[in-house]
């Protein structure tokens, strides 16, 4: 059973013209979405800031707010962005704290927390929520009895926390990874590129999960999202140290494993390029499209935004900078019958070409480091088997 407070405390924290941020991830506080919407409509003029919603935020009526912004439209906010109910701010995850301090300063942060002996901490994720607290937001807290206690760092400031509800429902579960022959070939080609003992980041989805499942060398995990497969990695004796992450993205066994482990950190730490690039670091990410120069689009197609920049650019830049590491983009050569190598991206550049080191497809891989622009274009064309693209590159 899930319940929120009966005395409607949340509504007392809102005023016309204020900005409310809602904690994101699988632990987003759904229990008070309806109450928040009703209170915002009654007060009027309330602005809303959202992050990564893995599923559609049911009960959250976006029309009740004067303005809605999101820093990550995928996955659950795709329709809201397409329908014009929410504005997508194209920003890297590492830049969100600065945005919160300098431009969109929340007055209230609605978040799920867990109680400790001395106070409260964030629950299933920290993400950019610490930035909102540091910027002075009052925390409208929903205490969870089913979320893990796995946040590193200090407790939330007691004088900023107001308990507005509680829940005994666990955070949402990441859907199980689906594999197919193409994904299996991609993972197999990635395995030789992961050195023993390196720090590794993988993007969300089936490829990252399969890569972790098939690793045969010990690694450290330093990744924005922590999937279930980390538990298996630990059980196989291949996990070095405690993982570093800002979102739990798994199911019950991941949450049980994470209980009592200080694995969750704010994005100011997890996505800090200087920290990430201090030691050998390998980042494995994918793309919607790769253009002939090696530029990456992860936002969507010409007709729809369905992803977001997120930590893609942060991790790619860090891995491209580190000595002994590399930024890898792994992508199938086609999607829905169309080539993923394009002459011009459907959307603005998400990650620049100079932050892409190795590109892997089911056909093979190519190391772009040290190549000039013409050589890069020719190498990508050869990898995709696009003879026409290679001919254009040579003629330039």
Which whole number gives the mean pLDDT? 94
- Domain count, please report it: 2
Q: From the alpha-carbon coordinates, what is the Rg to the nearest angstrom? A: 21 Å
Instruction: For the record, give the distance between the C-alpha atoms at the N and C termini, rounded to a whole number.
Output: 66 Å
**Secondary-structure arrangement, i.e. CATH architecture of the largest domain:** 3-Layer(aba) Sandwich
What are the segments in which pLDDT stays under 50 over at least 5 consecutive residues? 390-396
The helical percent reads 25-40%
Quaternary state of the chains: single chain
Shape: globular
Beta-strand residue fraction: 15-25%
Q: Biggest sheet: strands, sense, closure? A: 9 strands, mixed
Please tally the helical runs, counting DSSP H or I stretches of 4 or more residues: 14
Which structural class do you get from the secondary structure elements? alpha/beta
The overall strand count is: 22
Q: Considering the protein shown, what is the CATH homologous superfamily of the largest domain?
A: Glutaconate Coenzyme A-transferase
CATH topology of the largest domain: Glutaconate Coenzyme A-transferase
Write down the CATH class of the largest domain: Alpha Beta
